[in-house]
């Protein structure tokens, strides 16, 4: 059995009340080829649910369904599409009521990127991030992570399209949930299942130095992105509390070890915050940290969040900043913001829904008081 398939069936079995995939198999006298049929139906054929697996005997399908064996571990609660139709954001409910977000971005030229969450909430409290402001709830399981991609893959499959890229840039810190994240990468990658190449997957981290070293040892072709957002400790510690544990120098040293070990490009994310990290001097300091062609900066326009007292830099500042990097020979791209009209930045939709429901609760309370 492939590792990914075991992870999948074990988790599905646990949701149905069994200890493991084996326990489920023996309870239903499922031969290995039956497990393979289920796994392929969910991950490769992207079948909606058990009813769609017509190769399975009907009695078996209803017996499994009666035990809460489900293909999906995440339920869409809100699905919003941006006005230009390019961005679709989903808020998904997990079995215990927690909610996470995932976003599909359909780029011109056929690239379809899904941004997925690895944790409900996040413990790292970056000041500019909605998720960080809301705090940490729990790690997602490998299948809960994978099923976010499965949801959008099913949508795309309806008109013969596929997910081409997956980025772990939704809610949570992927490297703080490394085992489940790596298991979800195996599910995405399995050539007998979902079949997405490692090179089309990117893991983004707030900068956990010990985990970056572990990730380097794993020697996968999965891309690494580092949320740098400031070139000096003075600025970085102000907006990213994690910098008090590992300084910018610690982080850059870990990146250097990673590059030496893997010879792979590293993407540095740099969100532009007006008056905080966007001066010419910041750009020159940042350029000094970028030591060659394997260091790539993604300059990111800030998606303002109502709960942080920060503003994004204007377009002119963003381009001037990128220009300085370029003049210093740094590989740089400016990310185009997508889905601003649907609150597509990390944690924003959940924050909005929560605020709306708080508003609704206040309104209901007021109505009760008035009556
Ligand atoms: N915890 C991981 C991955 C999740 S956040 C990390 O820190 O990398 C994915 C990226 O979105 C990070 O670079 C994060 O700093 C950035 N981000 C968070 N809130 C944002 C916002 N409102 N606008 C733009 N980028 C944001």
How are strands sequenced across the largest beta sheet?
Answer: 1-2-3-4-7-8-9-10-11-12
| Distinct small molecules | S-adenosyl-L-homocysteine
Helix fraction, binned, reads 40-55%
- Supply Rg: 22 Å
Mean pLDDT: 91
Superfamily (CATH H level) name of the largest domain: Aldolase class I
> What is the string of SSEs from the N terminus onward?
HHHHEEEEEHEHEHEHEHHEHEHEH
Query: How far is the first residue's CA from the last residue's CA?
Result: 63 Å
Number of helices: 13
* CATH fold annotation of the largest domain: TIM Barrel
Class of the largest domain in CATH?
Answer: Alpha Beta
- What is the number of E strands? 12
Which term fits the overall shape?
elongated
**CATH architecture annotation of the largest domain:** Alpha-Beta Barrel
- The poorly predicted ranges are 357-371
| Domain tally | 2
Strand content: 15-25%
Supply the helix-strand structural class: alpha/beta
Largest sheet geometry: 10 strands, mixed
Quick structural overview:
This protein is an alpha/beta fold. It has helices at residues 3-15, 21-27, 32-43, 58-66, 130-134, 142-157, 178-189, 209-218, 233-239, 248-262, 280-289, 315-327, 348-370; strands at residues 75-81, 87-93, 99-106, 112-115, 119-121, 136-139, 165-168, 201-205, 223-227, 266-272, 295-301, 331-334. A 10-stranded mixed sheet has the order 1-2-3-4-7-8-9-10-11-12, covered by helices on one side. Strands 5-6 form a two-stranded antiparallel ribbon.
Q: Can you describe what's shown?
A:
The structure is a single chain. A 10-stranded mixed β-sheet has the order 1-2-3-4-7-8-9-10-11-12, covered by helices on one side. Strands 5-6 form a two-stranded antiparallel ribbon. The N and C termini lie far apart (about 65 Å). It folds into 2 domains: about 5-65, no CATH class; about 75-355, Aldolase class I (TIM Barrel, Alpha-Beta Barrel), CATH 3.20.20. It is an alpha/beta fold. It contains 13 helices and 12 strands.
């Amino acid at each position: 059995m492939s590792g990914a398939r075991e992870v999948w069936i074990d988790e599905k079995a646990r949701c149905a009340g069994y200890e493991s995939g084996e326990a489920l198999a023996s309870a239903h006298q499922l031969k290995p080829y039956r497990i393979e049929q289920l796994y392929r139906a969910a991950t490769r054929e992207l079948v909606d649910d058990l009813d769609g697996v017509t190769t399975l005997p009907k009695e078996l399908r209803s017996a499994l369904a009666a035990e809460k064996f489900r293909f999906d571990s995440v339920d869409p609660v809100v699905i919003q599409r941006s006005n230009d139709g390019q961005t679709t954001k989903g808020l998904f409910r997990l079995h215990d009521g927690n909610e996470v977000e995932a976003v599909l971005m359909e780029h011109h030229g056929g690239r379809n990127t899904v941004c997925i969450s690895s944790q409900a909430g996040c413990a790292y409290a970056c000041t500019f991030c909605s998720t960080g402001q809301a705090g940490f709830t729990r790690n997602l399981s490998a299948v809960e992570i994978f099923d976010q991609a499965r949801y959008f893959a099913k949508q795309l499959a309806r008109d013969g399209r596929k997910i081409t890229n997956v980025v772990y840039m939704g809610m949570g810190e992927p490297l703080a949930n490394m085992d489940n994240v790596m298991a979800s990468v195996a599910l995405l990658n399995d050539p007998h299942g979902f079949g997405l190449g490692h090179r089309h997957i990117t893991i983004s981290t707030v900068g956990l130095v010990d985990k970056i070293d572990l990730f380097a040892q794993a020697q996968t072709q999965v891309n690494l992105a580092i949320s740098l957002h400031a070139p000096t400790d003075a600025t970085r510690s102000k907006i990213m509390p994690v910098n008090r544990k590992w300084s910018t120098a610690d982080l850059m040293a870990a990146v250097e070890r990673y590059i030496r070990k893997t010879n792979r490009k590293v993407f540095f994310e740099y969100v532009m915050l007006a008056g905080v990290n966007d001066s010419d001097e910041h750009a020159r300091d940042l350029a000094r940290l970028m030591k060659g062609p394997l260091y790539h900066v993604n300059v990111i326009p800030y998606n303002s969040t109502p709960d942080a007292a920060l503003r994004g830099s204007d377009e002119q500042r963003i381009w001037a900043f990128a220009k300085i990097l370029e003049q210093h020979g740094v590989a740089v791209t400016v990310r185009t913001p997508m889905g601003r009209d649907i609150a597509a930045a990390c944690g924003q939709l959940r924050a909005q829904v929560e605020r709306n429901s708080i508003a609704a609760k206040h309104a209901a309370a007021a109505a009760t008081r008035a009556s």
